[in-house]
Design goal:
The chain has about 45 residues and is mainly α. The protein has one helix spanning about 5-20.
Length: about 45
């Protein structure tokens, strides 16, 4: 990472990890379609 101390690198990684985990996925922002409900067939009369 280019830091002189491993402690500095560890601190950076902790901040970076929490930032990445707090970021919303673009897929979560997409609208959710309504679930598909099949239409029952019309009754047949004899």
């Amino acid at each position: 990472m280019g830091h002189r101390s491993l402690a500095t690198t560890a601190r950076y990684l902790k901040v970076a990890t929490s930032t990445v985990c707090a970021t919303a996925s673009p897929f979560d922002l997409l609208p959710h379609p309504d679930p598909f409900v099949p239409v029952p067939p019309a009754p047949t009369y004899f």
